[in-house]
Amino acid sequence: MKLGVVGLPNVGKSTLFNAITRAGAAAANYPFCTIEPNVGIVAVPDERLDVLAAMYSPEKYTPTAIEFVDIAGLVRDAHKGEGLGNKFLSHIREVDAVVHVVRCFEGGNVVHVDGSVSPARDVETIEIELIFADLETVERRAERARKASKSGDKAVAAEADFYEAIKAWLEAGKPVRTMPMDEKQAEFAKSLFLLTTKPVIYVANIAEGDIGMPDNAHVRAVKQIAAAEGAEAVVICARVEEEIAELSREEKEAFIEELGIGESGLDKLVRACYKLLGLISFLTAGPKEVRAWTIERGTKAPQAAGKIHTDFERGFIRAEIVPFETLRQFGSMQSCKEKGLVRSEGKDYVMQDGDVTLFRFNV
Question: Would the pTM of this model clear 0.70, i.e. be above it?
């Protein structure tokens, strides 16, 4: 899973990236501090693995991972090549979802590229640049499709009509991800690799003094934007996340409790990302390894087995499954078996989040 961290210059984008990845990306009070994208691979926090590790004392402990890409700050007219626009846009095409950091704090010591703080304007600036870039892509494809449709091929004509519908939607200033489509159209739109088809998580970056306080007007604006398009929104203080990243696990837990924020920014982002992309994790456990595997919600057992190895899917016989909470309650897989709590599931079983699974296969 690959997430692109984007935002206008000086909104706290690289500070947040540093905090959640500890990759040491440069962060400074001037535009275009990030030129080439910094990349950090982050283990997804999952306390269920800690419980399984205590049970099995495995040789390996393997959480699932997210790749964060810190992409250069964008400015108005990026689609025309302003700032580092073209590079910025090409990097966005490669990610699964966009983490859009929006400045929600005042403060004269940090320069805002537009001279004032306005989340709605900032979000629109980036959205419009992505829309313009997509319009160029769609217009080229629509022109080719129109020429090809003169042959009388109905499928090509339908494709040309769909391009025109996307073009009209973009010209209305709306991202393609908000466009009503049937399943076939959505699959086709996805194949176009348009920038505005990417799902978005908005991060409202607040000041330290706003932690634990009711949402300020800037945060409310970000949440309103997210709600309007069915996106996710999380509230994070990037500066505090930097401090949290430097602490030991015990210190981190105590500090989070003292602040009253409930969980770290990374935890919030991961939860929002899984929800937005429709992802869950199943678990495998034994003396050799405890591991989390990320799959799409609705995945059936054979395809989940294929995440581990293609032979598991090809020769799938059954999946032996116990829900994590049941395993934790009774303390061991053996206890669960003795109580008849380990289920044997076949090819039509739809995997659930937290399924502790052993796949039986024969090839």
Answer: yes
